[in-house]
Amino acid sequence: MTAARQEKIRFLLQKHGHLTVAELAKKFNVSEMTIRRDLKQLSSMGLIIREHGKAIYPQNVPSTRVDFITRLGEAHKEKMAIGKAAAELVKDGESIIIDSGTTTLAVAVSLNKKCIVVTNSLPVADILSMKKEITILLTGGEIQRTTFSLMGPITRENLSGFNADKLFLASTGVSLEKGLSTSSMAESEVKQAMIESAKEVILVADSSKLGKVFYHTFAKWDKIHKFITDEKADQELLNNIKKHGVEVIQAS
User: Fold this and answer.
1) What is the pLDDT of residues 108-122, one digit of tens each?
2) What DSSP character marks residue 140?
3) CA angle 137–141–145, rounded 5-degree value
4) Whether residue 246 is found in the same domain as residue 131
5) Distances 20 to 26, 148, 187, 244 between C-alpha atoms, Å
6) Which of 95, 109, 185, 232 shows the greatest Cβ crowding within 10 Å of its Cβ?
7) Structural domain tally of the chain?
8) Is the CB of residue 223 less than 8 Å from the CB of residue 203?
């Protein structure tokens, strides 16, 4: 219900430009405190701007942030469903790594277990900072302004010391033949370090990523234990992925 309400809030703000907390609380028949929590979460994801007593749909923001906000909006329902399914795999007391990306951000939104999270994503850390039961560790590194993530040798070195139970991994391209790919060598190197630091690797990617291949392959299917995607994914492709020993979960 929370995710559905937040999506409706986002579309209302896109339609009207701005709305007050009181107006939104009346619209959804919930308390103003509930709306403030929703707005804080949406703001952390970059989807809206909060001001005292009201929320604004972002218009005049830097182009790099617009790009990130646009990616957050793409396949939003699918990403939230994937994030919920992924978060349900986490057990109390586990240590997990959450990669940077918009789908992994949806994992952070749904995560509610007492656990330790290592991440190179500033938005993920921001979302999780609202959840007192979760201990958050940032990897350190150089900030990439297009993705609001941390990259570079410091990031890779710091990841090498962790022994995580699970990794929630993002990928720009997901191909049966070429595996997982991205358009950045720096991202590839960090993702490879994450894979080496986790017992179980869980790929989270919506169906729009399937069949796409980008500049550099950072992992083949033998490195992936589970793949969580949405119901729109091509079944034949998923069946072929299963043949590589990958457990496929379709979130609805």
Assistant:
1) 988 999 999 999 998
2) -
3) 105
4) yes
5) 10, 28, 39, 51
6) 109
7) 2
8) no
